[in-house]
Amino acid sequence: MEDEVVDPHLNLFRRYGLSFDSQEEENNVTHAFINTLRLSDPRVTRLVLTHLVQEIGSLAVDWSDIGWGLQRPPLSPSAFQNRVMLAISPDGYQRPGASDESGPEIKLAAQPNTEIAETDADSGVEGRGVPDAWIYTKRTSTLCISIEVKVRGGVDPLQIERHKRTHFRGEGITFENLDLRWRDLSRTLDDAYYEYPNQVLTEFLSFLSAEGLSATLCFDAATIHRAGGSLPEDCMLQVLDGVRSQLGLAEGEIVRAIRQVLVFRNFEAVGNIEMWLEGEPPHVNTYLSFGTAKAGAEYNRLRMPDQIERLLEGLAQEVVRRRFIEAARATGRPFFWTVYDRLIRAQYTDWTGRKHAEIEEILRTMDKAVPSDAATCFGEDQKIPCEELDRVRKGLGLLHRGGEIRSGPFQGYRLFARAYLGDLRVPAYDRSPSDVLPELVNQCVTWYRILRILSGED
Known about the structure:
Layout: H1 26-39, H2 42-52, E1 66-70, E2 82-89, H3 104-107, E3 133-137, E4 143-149, H4 157-167, E5 175-181, H5 182-195, H6 199-211, H7 221-227, H8 233-247, E6 254-256, E7 261-264, E8 271-278, E9 283-290, H9 304-315, H10 318-330, E10 336-345, E11 348-350, H11 356-365, E12 384-385, H12 389-399, E13 403-404, E14 414-427, H13 433-454
Parallel strand pairs: 2-4, 2-5
Antiparallel strand pairs: 1-3, 3-4, 6-7, 7-8, 8-9, 9-14, 10-11, 10-12, 10-14, 13-14
Helix pairs in contact: 1-6, 2-5, 5-6, 8-13, 10-13
């Protein structure tokens, strides 16, 4: 029977019929957020707001006396003793002067709470500000909180100034937090759930996860679907920071070539570390890739063909072979090599994972004979045990800098080699990042040490 959690439309806050790959408008997200607080224990509201603005914790607030508004403010917001402004967005507050030439209104588009301009000619702070939500004390004038919400991009400083001028006039703001990110808020809500659990909070956190706004709190079905095979961004950054810290590397000595690839620039590495969220049930798979270098001064120090050249040199040296086998055995895990072709024409690379017979057919169109002892040394269907390094050398040697293909469906492409060594797996489904990510960091450190050996560095 299918688990209900895989259907996002069953979520309390998700509009029925909206594509899973479409994002809700900010009005609907604001509505969900405010109603989550409104329907939860008042202590949830206190915990969340005092975490977002610590000064609120020192105020004498009756948290059972809270009013709520969506774009409709209380009477006379400026008359409240404590006037707070919050802004929640994916990318934070765009400080004046930090935006590009397109201007904040273009860069920070998609604002359904259209504000009423007092003059059509003025694009600055003139105009009426319409914040997305309000939270305030009803029977006293203790606290009034104005909230601006964005579900894409960052917060426009001019819009914040309009809110202040429209609703707080000369009194100004007592406290503010304009750089609040949805991921930080989701962690706070998760903390609140563990202290004051309720089903509405559960639904809202799942809703944020499906919207791609939440920090990764659990590798649930919605998170895995939206990640699309890659590790979620916040998790990838934590892994990057963890590996950098364990290895004592400087900022520029480890970078990401693309979302799921770690590149080391502190030595001439023959490969990179890749990690993918895949399988059923889902797990994180980490491995080394060789001959897949991304060109550019900020990425690999060795170009793609030079990686394979250096790897072949290393595999021919007895000391490298011995140290590699020792390091692989020390993990207590079975590793396998897979050797592939890599076809390139102009700037396009064909990454298809072909089987042995398909690669052999390409070689045949190039009038290249495949020796009998190399027949099982390449192809997706040939998993080579990690210690059988002669097979790896033969496979790479046949494909490396193979020349131009002059006939057949790949005419005009040039033949190169690539290889993968893996894999190490960490179970992910229904586990929290705090359980999964430390294991990933340790695996990456292991791969780093093996990569240095194969690069002839250790």
